[in-house]
Amino acid sequence: MRFWQKTLVLMLVLFVVVLDVSVIMIMNKSWRLNMNREQQRAASDHALIANSIYENLNSIKSRGMRINDTILLDVARSYGEYYRERGISLQLSNQDAPVYAEPSEPSARHISVTNELPAPYGYLQLTYRRDIEALYAGQDELNRYFVYINCISIPVLAALMYVLIRKLTKPLQSLADSTKSIAEGNYGQRVQLKNRDEFGELAQHFNRMADAVERQVTDLSAMAEEKQRMVDNLAHELRTPLTSLQGFAQYLNAAHIDEEERITASGYLWSETLRLKNLVFKLLDLSILSHQPVKRSRIPVVELFESVRRMEQANLDAAGIELILDADIPAVWGDRELLESFLVNCLENSIHASTPGLEIKLAAYEQDAAAVLEVTDSGRGMSAAHLERVFEPFYRVDHARSREHGGAGLGLALCRQIAEAHQAQLSLKSEEQKGTTIQLILQLHNNGPLTL
Amino acid sequence: MATILVVEDEKPISDLITMNLKLVGHRFFKAFDGAQMQQILEQEKIDLILLDVMLPVMDGFEWMRRHRHPGVPVIFITAKDSLADRITGFELGADDYIIKPFEILELLARINVVLRRNIKEEEGFTAGDVDIRLAARQIYRSGQLVELTAREFELLEVLIQNQNIALSREKLLELAWGYEFEGDTRTVDVHIRQLRKKLGWEERIRTVYKLGYRLEAER
Question: Which Gene3D superfamilies does this one have (chain A) (predicted)?
Fold first, then answer.
């Protein structure tokens, strides 16, 4: 049963019961009052008639006549006939022996009073009867009218109440519609209610809740999408080396080949295995980074730069590139291994983008009360379109070149994770054919030990 | 055998495919991008193109869109395993579609199917004094017609199409007898013995230790 139906039925029943009970009580009271009045009237009429008869009998007596039954009958008849016109019947009896009686309908409802005449005629009883059929008829009429009024007023009342209750519960309906829509997954839906009552308040709270839910859902689905993209990319990345490994292994195993082909095939097994290993290790780094807290310590910048140079010296020499170190600040706070890894990744990207004879610069300086670590090259650079997506895992600006260097396409994704772990900002500026600058901006609280 | 153009930007995969093509006696050309591919198509007579979808600059689908009817059958090779891609490939007029990572034997089998559908003149296979015409199903040894049963011929065909590659007995059952055949691998041994005897190929059909059999042809 709907709320409006419940309300309507309950209200209607209550209203009708209260109204009808009141009306019935009033009618009852009025009936009793009418009856009383009739009683009183009968009593006073009776007294009047009895008195008249008494006077009459006295005057007859004073004329020296004896009061016998004939005279009584005469007197009674004269009164009886006079009163019959008025719907009143009289009866006179002498010590229970009727002297005069009116024929009257026994079934008819009437009111009757019987009393003795005043002394010395105490042996006579006068019975006064009056028909009150009209009173009953009136009451019946009233009852019929009451039922009739009920038949008219209850439907009218019901209709009015229906309209009113529907109007009052309309906000509830619109709330229900909106919530249903939200429950079905339209998280952008909001309740449009301008009421200034409880419904309006409920709608406001509800909208606030929907906002929160929508935010959550959006965040979650964005995260899920990124995860999915990562998995898709990973699957895609794995297919090529796996194809090579599977194919060359089978080739070595089953083909009728000579030494030269054996060397080629096993060389590919070797290099593709390295590529896979590289990919797996980078992935492991990524996953460890997102689960482990960073171990901050004070790292002297010169030490940091020198160890990066040591790691990359072979690559720098092979590419014929000069590395310039420029440390303006003595130290930064952070995780030594992670910052090394950050710089190495950026440096490798720069080496791959540069031609022999160019320079790459590692710099550390203070800017706007933050420590900045910066890698600058004057290499190939990239377009704005690439800049947006370059931190996504497996995104490559130049696919062929990246594969050539055995890159997994995870370097900058790792850099982004390292920046996030340090709550640091990353900034990447690049111009095609001019070069690229990447900055890690370690905020002020990173320049000292973390006090939490 | 046929001349096949392999368009693949990943050098390892390109080499893997061409080394295997060479094994079974196909000639091949390598292209690493659309431009090279175009150049080779203009200069050489190509029977089949193996086209990687993920090419730098212009991908394989795009190339197919621009050359709706290259007059050469095309098999797409891709790492994208989605139905949508496969449908796109076929709609663009590809003859087949193969997904990385693939079994090299499967690639060779698909190449053979496409070639047989499109080949104009049948090339024979000659080894020593044996001359085989697959299309005519005729085998001559020193000019004498050799009688083979249907099953022996199937087996011979499989061996020739996968020459220089060792095939396990199970693989041979699958390729020559079909998937439904619930055979014993000894069936294969019996038929191989028959073939060796009838063709005088005791040396040519090699038993490869722990693997199976390999038809060794001149390379």
Answer: 1.10.287.130, 6.10.340.10, Histidine kinase-like ATPase, C-terminal domain (3.30.565.10)
B162 and B142, same structural domain?
Answer: yes
| Average pLDDT over chain B, rounded to an integer | 87
Residue A385: predicted pLDDT: 81
The pLDDT of residue B123:
65
pLDDT of residue A238: 85
List the Cα angle B126/B131/B135 in 5-degree steps.
100
**What's residue A450's pLDDT?**
45
Q: Report yes or no on whether pTM surpasses 0.90.
A: no
Average the pLDDT over B53-67 and give the result: 81
Contacts of B100 in chain A (CB under 8 A): 239-240, 242-243
B139 and B165 together in one domain: yes
- Mean pLDDT score, B79-86: 79
Q: What pLDDT shows up at residue A305?
A: 93
Tokens 């449009």 map to which residue?
A192
The residue segments making up the domain with residue B61 are 3-119
Residue of A228, A236, A240, A271 to mutate when probing chain B, most B C-beta within 10 A: A240
Residue B18's CATH number: 3.40.50.2300
Q: Are residues A278 and A315 in the same domain?
A: no
- Distance of CA A370 to CAs A64, A426, A442, A451, B119, Å? 147, 12, 6, 17, 71
From the list B9, B102, B211, which residue is nearest A254 (CB)? Answer: B211
- Is A390 part of a structural domain of the chain? yes
- Angle at Cα A309 formed by Cα A305 and Cα A314, nearest 5°? 170
Interface with chain A: mutation pick from B16, B24, B30, B172, highest number of A CBs within 10 Å: B16
Per the document, the length of chain B is: 219
Same domain flag for A283 and A326: no
B10 and A242: CB-CB below 8 Å?
Answer: no
Total number of domains constituting chain A: 3
> What is the CATH classification number for the domain harbouring A390?
3.30.565.10
Nearest chain A residue (CA) to B107: A247
Last residue of a domain, one of B98, B119, B140: B119
Residue A158 falls within a domain, yes or no?
Answer: no
Residues in chain A with pLDDT < 70? 104-108, 399-406, 444-452
Are B111 and B15 within one domain?
yes
Query: Are A239 and B16 inside 8 Å of each other by CB?
Result: no
B216 touches chain A (CB under 8 A): yes
Residue A199 included in any domain = yes
Q: Are the beta carbons of B79 and A239 separated by less than 8 Å?
A: yes
Please report how many Cα atoms fall inside a 13 Å half-sphere around the Cα of residue A17, on the Cβ side. 6
Best B13, B82, B102, B159 residue to mutate vs chain A (most A CBs within 10 Å)? B13
Q: Last residue of some domain: A291, A316, A351?
A: A291
User: How many structural domains compose chain B?
Assistant: 2
Supply the pLDDT for residue B88. Answer: 84
Q: Above pLDDT 70, what percent of chain B?
A: 95
Which chain A residue has its CA at the smallest distance from B215's CA? A256
At A83, which helix (H) or strand (E)?
A: helix A69-84
Backbone angles phi, psi at A370, to 5 degrees: -130, 150
Residue A302 domain-assigned (yes or no): yes
Q: How far is B83 from chain A (nearest CA, A)?
A: 15
A257: chain B residues, CB-CB within 8 Å: 23, 164
- The arithmetic mean of pLDDT across residues B193-211, rounded, is 91
Range of the domain at A193: 187-291
Whether A264 and B166 lie within 8 Å, measured CB to CB: no
**Taking the mean position of all CA atoms in its chain, how far away is CA A246?**
56
Instruction: Single out the residue of B16, B67, B59 nearest to residue B42, CA to CA.
Output: B67
Q: What mean pLDDT do residues B202-209 have?
A: 91
